[in-house]
Specification:
- The complex is a heterodimer.
- Chain A is an alpha+beta fold.
- Chain A has two domains: about 70 residues, Beta-grasp domain (Ubiquitin-like (UB roll)); about 70 residues, DNA polymerase, domain 1 (Orthogonal Bundle).
- In chain A, about 35% of the residues lie in helices and about 15% in strands.
- In chain A, a hairpin with a 2-residue loop joins strand 1 and strand 2.
- Helix content of chain B is about 35%, strand content about 25%.
- The chains are: A alpha+beta, B alpha+beta.
- At the A-B interface, strand 4 of A face helix 2 and helix 6 of B.
Chain lengths: ~150, ~280
């Protein structure tokens, strides 16, 4: 099936299996920054941004991306260098496996309008870090929210 | 995942969607959070998927002084963010805002959530507590079902395979207060051990209770309405001893199972505790 979508700011037509997971399709396009963690929508490692909202690409059937505006960590890193800087300055990463998902979630925070530290914490609760470096991640997101 | 021969249709209207479903093993698809999980584990292998993402008719929230109507393709995030729903139906608003995580809430739809019928879901008890009705259509007819009568068992509803949930309607009563509370000992995004939706409707004097509804999730194969608790509260003023007495009656209504969220005995205890707190929250809302 052919679908049209915007991927990392570029409009394109893709030939896809509509029942394939967005996670697999994106990684097949060499966008391997999107990681598979739990595979059941719990951990957040595979977070992508769809029409401004955070989405688990491991639960996203590719057919539902038709006509959507889709961003992965690769596109957002170029588009929002100050967000990457905020994670670097706060040392908001340890082993790095959850980091792309954390950053994509942070980039999508406007979708819920979270601004206070408590709201940021509630919003980011769905992105797990098994190194448990949560405080520095939350500081990075709070700094990002404060300047945006 | 293996590639498949599943046909994927994207209708742009309800009538087009309904005429597309007449095929064995065809399913409607909302946000996909539940469907993708069932599909990945091969619990379902649909021959055709009718995705409703482009059906604008199913996407509105309409509020009037007498009722709130929510389209079946409205997401949990949209319900949680709606200020009128937060004001008029605080229990529904709370439930929509605690489901899963921000990613699930951004994708999961009202119709999909109800049709999925996992008895641990937060939204059904909150909606049943305020007398929600489900509007359903197939290609030739339509019907309205009380959400309280909608569930038949684990992942089972009264829906026929060709029926589509189009919207949910909740009546607004001036003298009613409602709430939803959940308890989970694991991570924030997990299903609850027990969730309690409650509503108290007061007589015109504003002091005595005319009707009360208490609904529990996570403690049976379907959401459980404790009619005994409701009856015990009618006619009282909702004083603390009346609330405690009603909450204790929940123990006889629930039918929990041992699992990683607690033993059956523990869940029965927590059901009574959270029934009381949900009733108390109605008074404070």
């Amino acid at each position: 099936m052919k679908i049209n979508l915007s991927l990392n700011g570029k409009g394109m037509e893709l030939e896809v299996d509509p029942m394939a997971l967005a996670l697999d399709v994106l990684r097949g396009l060499s966008l391997t920054g999107t990681k598979e963690g739990c595979g059941v929508g719990v951990c957040g490692a595979c977070t992508i941004m769809v029409n401004g909202s955070p989405v688990s690409s491991c639960l996203c059937l590719t057919g539902t991306l038709a006509d959507k505006d889709v961003w992965t960590i690769e596109g957002l890193a170029e588009k929002m260098p100050e967000l990457i800087d905020s994670f670097v300055e706060n040392e908001g990463m340890q082993c790095g496996i959850c980091t792309p998902g954390q950053i994509v979630a942070a980039a999508s925070i406007d979708s819920v309008g979270a601004s206070s530290p408590e709201e940021v914490k509630k919003y980011m609760a769905g992105n797990l870090c098994r190194c448990t470096g949560y405080q520095t991640i939350l500081s990075a997101v709070e700094d990002h929210v404060a300047v945006n | 995942m293996q590639s498949t021969d599943t046909e994927f249709l994207i209708p742009s209207s309800v009538s087009e969607a309904l005429s597309s479903i007449a095929l064995e093993d065809a399913i409607f698809l909302g946000g996909g959070t539940s469907t993708a999980l069932l599909y990945k584990t091969r619990m379902i292998e649909p021959s055709r998927v009718v995705w409703l993402g482009n059906v604008g008719e199913l996407k509105g929230i309409f509020t009037s002084p007498t009722e709130v109507k929510i389209g079946s393709m409205v997401t949990m995030a949209e319900i949680a963010a709606d200020r009128e729903i937060a004001r008029l139906l605080p229990g529904v608003s709370t439930a929509a805002g605690v489901i899963g995580n921000a990613r699930v809430r951004a994708m999961a739809t009202l119709g999909g959530a109800l049709a999925h019928a996992d008895p641990r879901q937060d939204l059904p008890p909150a909606l049943i507590a305020v007398d929600a009705k489900v509007s359903v259509r197939n290609a030739s007819s339509s019907r309205e079902i009380n959400l309280a009568d909608f569930y038949e068992g684990f992942l089972e509803t009264v829906l026929s395979p060709d029926e589509l949930i189009t919207e949910v309607t909740v009546p607004i009563l001036q003298n009613r207060r409602s709430s939803y509370l959940r308890y989970t000992p694991t991570s924030e995004g997990d299903y609850p051990t027990v969730g309690a939706g409650a509503s108290l409707t007061f007589n015109e004097d504003g002091k005595s209770i005319s009707t009360a509804t208490l609904v529990l999730c996570g403690v049976g194969a379907v959401p459980i309405v404790s009619s005994e608790a409701g009856l015990a509260l009618a006619g009282t003023t909702g004083d603390d001893s009346a609330l405690l007495r009603a909450a204790e009656l929940v123990r006889g209504a629930v039918d929990p199972q041992d699992d990683e969220r607690g033993t059956a005995d523990y869940k029965r205890d927590m059901a009574a505790v959270f029934a009381y707190r949900a009733l108390k929250a109605c008074l404070n809302s």
